[in-house]
Amino acid sequence: MRLLGIDPGLRFTGWGVVDAEGNRLRHVANGVIKSGNGELAIRLRRLHDGLQEVVAAFQPDSAAVEETFVNRDGQSTLKLGQARGIALLVPALADVPVAEYAANSVKKSVVGYGHADKTQIGHMIGVLLPGAIVDSADAADALAIAICHAHHASARQMVEAAQ
Question: What's the number of domains the chain is made of?
């Protein structure tokens, strides 16, 4: 099963693709889509177009997006929510099912601790996906989301097989 993880952000949206076969994971690709400067609508379109290219290139069977972290700055949260909307929409338009995970669930799945920092996540990505070259924290987070999704999808498959 090919899984796409998306770490939405208005400036940088990380993405990561892994293949999951049982409990084995293999790194396929990762990267960051940069929205650049300018009007919000244009920046959102750049995110949309970039994610559309990723979905078309890697043909995921399923995708996962991190849930929005709400902070004190309402304007920033709203903009992040708009980028997250693009991250949910693009796979859905390609008929790819999309799951959502809280940041703590992602961290717990990858590191074993729900409040892990980016350094710990980056280290575990290297352990779980040997040979993967990850150039940004956003891409590492996206791979962590894909790994979390693989763990949940695997558990779901085991439950379905038992029924």
Answer: 1
